[in-house]
Amino acid sequence: MRTKNFIIALCSTFALLISCNKDENENLYTPEITKDDMSASVKTDAFVEDLSTVVLEQLGELNLAARMMSTERQTPSCAVVSINPQAPYTSGQTISKTIDFGSTGCSMPNGNTLKGKIIIKFTYQPKATSHTITYTFENFSHNNVKVEGTRTITITRGTSAANPNEHLIFKIDLNLTVTLENGKILKITGTKTREIIQGQNTPELSDNVYQITGNWETVFPSGTVRLAEITSPLIVKSNCFYITKGIISYTKLDKTAAVLDFGNGECDDKATLTVNGQNYIIFLGK
């Protein structure tokens, strides 16, 4: 009888230990997804788009990204832009372009504030069929979120399912470290592709429409990895400061954590974030 009771007690203890370990593992690897948590991810992803917009606009002014600029400049007018060396250039020469937003900051048309410097570098190759551009940051922040790291843009000409006509295609590689206002550090890696899908054959820039596809991952301080994938192409119009359409799905441990829907094509600063079956309105600007 004592042996039987001992075995029962041992089994109960063993079951309790398994249960505790299971609970601890679930708490460790599947923390609750909250609206605030996802809002931070959304805002981080939004500044990545702002960076792309400014850099592509500056490349357009160097004739490396023709027709990528919108009718109204996205680069704040208070930013100081410098190029080294000055034209004329020779093939194979390295060119550096610096956009300095100052220490007090400059505001974009969408209300987001940029501080510090973005430094763009590329090799001048006028006859090349593709161009590779890198840009880095110096004391740079977006709405007081510090940004460090390197991004690479590869520009090629080609066709795609979205646009059967030959056009410029921009592949953007992400390798960024982001420090939030609360001190938390996030690491972002991935790839996005941006291309024109409408307005290519008209003289006006205002009718240009672009789509963005891609995926990336964000590593949080706890080690949690969140994957983001554009499951419906993001649509950007030259005459609008915001993404007007498209869906980003966020997953963790192969489970959908949240979905961000940018709407039906209207130009506004709102998107719908769905977390745990609940819908929230997210404002895309500052």
From TrEMBL:
Top-level taxon of origin? Bacteria
In terms of PROSITE patterns, this protein maps to: PROKAR_LIPOPROTEIN
Record-given protein name = Lipoprotein
